[in-house]
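Appendix B, record 7
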Amino acid sequence: MMFKKIVIANRGDVAIRVQRACREMGIQTVAVHSTADSSAMHVRLADESVCIGPPASKESYLNIPAILSAAAISGADAIHPGVGFLSENPSFAQIVQDHGLTFIGPKPEHIKVMGDKIEAKKMALQLGIPCVPGSDGAITTKEEAVLVAKDIGFPVIVKAAAGGGGKGMQIAFSETELSNAIQLAQSEAEAAFGSGEVYIERYLANPRHIEIQIVGDKFGNVLHLGERDCSLQRRHQKILEETPSPALTKKVRENIGNLAASAMKKFGYESLGTIEFLHENGEFYFIEMNTRLQVEHPITEMVTGFDLVKTQIEISAGKPLKIRQNEVNINGHSIECRINAEDPDNFMPSPGKITDYHPPGGLGVRIDSGIYSGYEIPPYYDSLVSKLIVHGQSRKQCLARLRRALDEFVIGNIKTTISLHKRLLDSKNFVEGDYDIHWLEDHFLKP
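Structure tokens (predicted):
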């Protein structure tokens, strides 16, 4: 039975994206918001809204009792966590279920396993997914770290077990650097995640970041929707994504996609999920799995015509997938630019009031955003203010359309990364698809 009312436990463009899917499905929506977001577009567009606390995330969007109260007050029967915040919190997913509501996402146990990078790696190996050589578990002493590093070879990367967003990661090129790298990673991990547990992997010199979109229902049907190339990164944060990857052939795409889908079928996975790999010298290595909707999901929707959010909701309501793998077709090329309220030169946040706003349009152009003229961007949250998504029948057409769309895009009175994306389009490496995860920082952004 389909849901009647869904609480969207998020904000900004992702909350609006879920609202749009719900409206098309005839489902009412409840927006939750902090006092800083009382005039936000996701609040204006919802059928109902509930204020859940002050601006600080821990007192509002991370406030589980407040979100559950919003569901009780509004009479909702499900909660969609969106992206970030509580979307990959297994305790939240379980609490939602314990209160007789449906959590629109994977099973809590799957979120828990894949949320711990050490356990996720162990599970990936059990499921037949190749992993980067590294420690079998957490590293507790310098001596243990040295033995592992010598076995797999320098350079190595020290990672937080509960990590994400590039936090708690340090590279060591020699034994003398390793001790300091471990201390820095542990302290950063403790501050960011409340756990100083770290592990070690071989550091790959020039890989691409490739992720496979997975979707599975409650009846054992699992399929993949191709890959996304997310290699353009700064400090492990994605700047631009595209699909298909310029680095993969159709055969390679099918092979890694089928391997990922087969593994998730063994895992019993339900809902949307993304398996992230590093790809170097023809080999794929598992990094992690995101058990949620992705920020970059629109480019997959553009090339497949597949509504990922609607499908996610239908799966949670007990509906089977409507298509099979042989019916998935990749049509053309799509690119997403993350437009952040940041100085494009030094990446300092640039919150403030938007005085002029003109989004681009035309064939093959999509804007996912919650901003408008007169909107005051609060300083408390992620700096992402808009996602520009373009689609073309070829990568060449997609690039031309992207250039035109960026030229049309106006966000006045604040600094944004629109000009950064324009500069990318003037780069021969990017235009030719010749880049890896280090290229943006080590070459493009170098003075």
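Remarks on this record: The chain is about 35% helix and 25% strand. The radius of gyration is 21 Å.
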